[in-house]
């Protein structure tokens, strides 16, 4: 749902382990989802996206899973590195074919800390 | 490819002074544009949302205003800044081809 500036949930993972960051969304009509990574003092950066006609999409060390039944999105980061420490946001929008006219809604975010 | 610019990168302003932050997008037309504020250690708070020139939706009551004088230009303003306006301000776009954030402006009101 819409972020309202709440405190960020945190996740700590040992370097080299895999991490999973979760995001729940409320709009069953959401058609397109994006994960962003925000490093300290910088704006969020695009990581990976997925459309609702897919369940899984893989990038370099990252995988996004989409479960439309329970309206749940997750970001898996394999073999975590210190540089993965950041805040991660999910975002959703309603209709990919009408993307230009749909508002992008962001989740609250999760702070991931990689422990050396 | 699309790029988004935002300036200034940092700004220190006294209470009661005016504010103008600018955001421009290249490589896309008729984008949705957004202004977010982020307090330290917190999530994103949507301030304004625009689907076109002159069309602004305000998401939360506040001391700020936004304008969109051109298709790919979005401006965040205030006539008189408050201490509580301090924060990290992010412009973002979404539309054909995806969506992304600008580099942000760190505003400190003293």
Q: Write down the CATH class of chain B.
A: Mainly Beta
* CA-CA gap between termini of chain A: 33 Å
The CATH level-2 architecture of chain A is identified as Sandwich
| Beta-strand share of residues of chain B | over 45%
The biggest sheet of chain B, with number of strands, parallel, antiparallel or mixed sense and barrel status, is:
7 strands, mixed
Keywords:
heterodimer, A: mainly beta, Immunoglobulin-like, 48% strand, B: 110 residues, mainly beta, 7-stranded mixed β-sheet, 11 strands
Structure description:
The complex is a heterodimer of chains A (116) and B (110). Chain A has 116 residues and is an all-beta fold. Chain A has a single domain, classed as Immunoglobulins (Immunoglobulin-like), CATH 2.60.40. Chain A is built from no helices and ten strands. Chain A is globular, with a radius of gyration of 14 Å. The N terminus of chain A is likely disordered. With 110 residues, chain B is mainly beta. Chain B has a single domain, classed as Sandwich (Immunoglobulin-like). In chain B, a hairpin with a 2-residue loop joins β9 and β10. The mean pLDDT of chain B is 90. Classes of the chains: A mainly beta (116), B mainly beta (110). Chains A and B meet through β4 and β8 of A and β4, β5, β9 and β10 of B.
